[in-house]
Amino acid sequence: MAQQNINIGSSANKGDGDPIRTAFTKVNANFTELFARHDGSIAHVTDIKGSVFGDDSTVLVDGLNGKVNLDGTVKGNIIPDTDVTYDIGSSTKRFKDLYLSGNTIHLGTSTLSVDANGNFQLSGGLKSNNPIVGDDSTLLVDTANSSIPYTVLSGNPTTVAGYGITDAFDGAYGSLTGAPTIPTNNNTLTNGAGYITTSSTDALTNKSGNVSMFTNDSNYLTAETITLTTLKTEVAASTDFADFQTRVAAL
């Protein structure tokens, strides 16, 4: 219903306005429509078209431009009416600063919080496509190669045991796993590829004191030595080099 206005006449007591009954009929009709839009109290139960102002004339709802003024305080939780639908800001319209207490921020299935000492606490793992550097631009974590530079380690160890490896190699040959046995006698060598052997028909004799001479001991070659005095005697007695060779072979 459109608003009904009372005709009050062209001047006071002129008698050309609405009679009293007609006038109050319009008043009642206007109030009936007004209360139909309320619950009988101050609360409004229908739509409002236009702007809303506070007692201090602050614009709370700008009906002309379709904006809500949030310069004031908010009392209570801000909860959307549906899950995973709305954003706070956008890629081109960002909020400047966000002030929070040390309580938890929930990011997907992970949580981010700050302890009493101002340290970040992250429940999930940390993955970064950019390197992590110190205040002096020193590379702390090389995320491209998944490595931490040895030089940035605080109190970096100088020994293998310094890494906390309890079974660190002590440098002894016998500590090696699967280390081969090093033979201490040439008689323990077998006649395989790469070993020097001789046949049982070799005519080398075994005499003590012979140098660079070999004896046939069960098909293995063993070195013998001769004294320097014996060698000098044979050199002095030799008539020529061929004779010297014969004398040495006979030793």
Descriptive account of the structure:
With 251 residues, this protein is of the alpha+beta class. The chain has a domain at 195-250. The protein is built from 3 helices and 10 strands. The chain has helices at residues 20-36, 228-237, 241-250; strands at residues 52-53, 59-62, 67-68, 105-107, 110-114, 120-122, 132-133, 139-141, 213-217, 220-224. β1 (52-53) and β2 form a beta hairpin. The protein is rod-shaped. 0% of the residues are buried. Mean pLDDT is 75; it is low at 200-217.
Rg computed from alpha carbons, rounded to a whole number of angstroms: 54 Å
Strand order of the largest sheet: 1-2-3
What is the percentage of strand-forming residues? 5-15%
The total strand number stands at 10
The biggest beta sheet reads:
3 strands, antiparallel
User: What would the principal axes of the Cα set say about the shape?
Assistant: rod-shaped
Q: How much helicity do the residues have?
A: 10-25%
The span between the termini is 146 Å
Multimeric status of the protein: single chain
- Overall structural class, as computed from helix and strand content, comes to alpha+beta
Compact overview of the structure:
This protein has 251 residues and is α+β, with helices and mostly antiparallel strands. It contains 3 helices and 10 strands; from the N terminus they run αββββββββββαα.
